[in-house]
Structures are given as C-alpha cells and as structure tokens.
Amino acid sequence: MALREDDPLGFAEAMAEAHSREFKRFDGQNAPVLFDRGLPDVVGFLDVSRFAVPRAIDRACQTIRYGGPIFRAPAWAEIYRQDSERIQDWAGAVASDQAVSAAWLRYGYDLVDLPLASVGDRMAFVRARL
After folding, report:
1. Are 43 and 9 in contact (CB under 8 A)?
2. pLDDT digits over 55-90, tens only?
3. Sign of the alpha-carbon torsion through 65, 70, 76, 79
4. Which residues pair with 111 in a beta bridge?
C-alpha cells in the first residue's frame, strides 16, 4: 500500500501493467475466466484521485477488451470495513465505486450488479449468467 500512498500514478501504472499481463495470460481460453479487477478499474482510481489518465492506459482500455458480462460488486455499507487493504472511509469507498463504474461504462461495457446477498447466492447468480 506504500506505493499507492507515495506514488499514486506509479501505483496506477503498475496496476495497469499487471491487469494487461493477466489478460494476456488467459487470452484465448475456451472456458470462462473471471478477473477480480480490470483495466477500467485503474481509470476509476485515477479519476477519483484526480489524475489525468495516461495515454497508454487509455489506449490499453480501448484495445484490451473483456468479454461480458462485467459483474460489479456494489458498495455495501453493512459489510464494509476498513482494514490495511481497504484504506478508504465509507464515503471514499462509495466515490471509488462510482468512479470505477463510470470508467467501465465510458469504455462501452455493460455492468451487471451482483446481489447484496450471501457468497453462495452471489456465486449462484454468477454461474447462472456464464
């Protein structure tokens, strides 16, 4: 988390590179592949952090395309807890969620909200849509 705090733009660039590598690693698979995050998440982070989106990250978002559906886990106040990884307060988490969702939409994706339900129910929801 130090890189995120000390060099947010460097953090974003490192994340974009990691997402690109992961995408390429699984490109061409015959079975569905689920990614926890993707390149537009980086754009959302930059937007909420008030940084311009570097041309290379924008270009990657335009050319590296995820197949749908794009599942979104909406901010959920009842289960949100700050910890060493979730450093934002609730208002910051909501702002990040909005920025990330807007970034996915900006790059032409349709989002499918996961239900605010148990892990088992969420898994069943995802499986039914794959």
Report:
1. no
2. 999 999 999 999 989 999 999 999 988 888 888 899
3. negative
4. 70
Q: How far is CA 91 from the centre of its chain?
A: 18
CA distance 42 to 61: 9
Reference 89, options 77, 104, 102, 72; nearest CA is 77
Q: What is the 3-state secondary structure (H, E, C) of the chain?
A: CHHHHHCHHHHHHHHHHHHHHHHHHHCCCCCCCCCCCCHHHHHHHHHHCCCCCCHHHHHHHHHCCCCCCEEECCCCCCCCCCCCCCCCCHHHHHHHHHHHHHHHHHCCCCEEECCCCCHHHHHHHHHHHC
Per-residue pLDDT at 3:
54
Axis-axis angle for helices 8-26, 55-63 (nearest 10): 20
pTM of the model: 0.90
